[in-house]
Amino acid sequence: MNPLKYFFLIACFWVATVTAQTQTEKIDALVQSYAKLGRFNGNVAVARKGHIVFARSYGLADREFDIPNTQDTRFRIASLTKQFTAVLILQLAESGQLDLHAPITRYLPYYKKELAEKITIHHLLTHTAGLPDYTERDDFFTEISKRQYDHREFIQKFCSDTLLHEPGTQYKYSNAGYYLLGGIIEEVTHDTYANVLQKKILDVLHMQNTGMETPERLIKNRAKGYNYGPSGYSNAEYIDISSTIFSAGAMYSTTGDLLKWDKALFSNKLLSAKSTEMMFTPFSSNYGYGVGTIKSFVPDLKTEVHFVFHQGAINGFRSVMTHVVNEDLVILLLCNTFEADPNPVSNGIFALLHGLPYSFAGEEK
């Protein structure tokens, strides 16, 4: 899902203060209003300056066994995965194993040559390669996503379509670009993406509740994904997420682990200051490397506020993560009901924390 769609709703807020006790009670009441109407089901975490100020679970991880969501529940994080892919690419660039501005034909010898000679890694990272998004195909969710492919086969079949525009000229959000980045990581390291992710990030940060999902793997405390409609809840449709989404969105995690990730990302623990700055610098349509990034002047503050953010959506799951750089404030929501859009909840929490008007579920204008 394009991370920029909902974000502009909160880009011009001014800042006020609320007591910590009132914050906790009000955030809980706000989220409960959505949960009671089936419009949120999952975990919420808010952290300021590296310290968790709010963490609660809502609804059920498994509706057939009435197992509630807890702080240990693992959710698919969908396109939040792109941040991790971007960091792995930047780490390889820092070590001299690849050049961000080199054509990808240097790293993917099996890729369609006429495309690979035009597209650079920088284009893939910024969604400016001109590649169509294979998830927008009419047959993706009904047919393609239910089959198993090796990554090379999938790239050749579904990430090699005719370009929509010349690389570097326009922004077009595309999962194909981030799938290709995963393929490049595997080619350059001669290892699997999952192994590189584990060694270079997850082990370093002790993210023990995070990894890549595969159909055969048993994952303790994993939430089941659901749809919600007029007839109530139903199971989300099957998707072979490891082979058809891969490095564009196949990770699972917890709110606790993602707060570890956020803290490391903003403290240069994984990347140099130069690489981190590149990652958070918008190139086109307020997108950097794996994240949306906006510096917006807020009239009431008479200053510029820097937001770094992304959201995700995959069968049965939704996610949204926003970091307010000026305040070192993180708002994170992981949800295991696809129709339960977490964006209004996230925006409401932001408004509440800053003394702005907000609405409970069902009261929105």
UniProtKB/TrEMBL annotation:
This protein's UniProt keywords: Signal
InterPro entries referenced in this protein's UniProt entry, alphabetically: AmpC-like, Beta-lactam-related, Beta-lactam/transpept-like
Pfam families: Beta-lactamase
PANTHER family reported in the protein's UniProt record: BETA-LACTAMASE-RELATED DOMAIN-CONTAINING PROTEIN, D-ALANYL-D-ALANINE-CARBOXYPEPTIDASE/ENDOPEPTIDASE AMPH
Residues annotated as signal peptide: 1-20
Name the record gives this protein: Beta-lactamase family protein
Keyword Calcium: no
Domain Beta-lactamase-related residues, every copy: 28-350
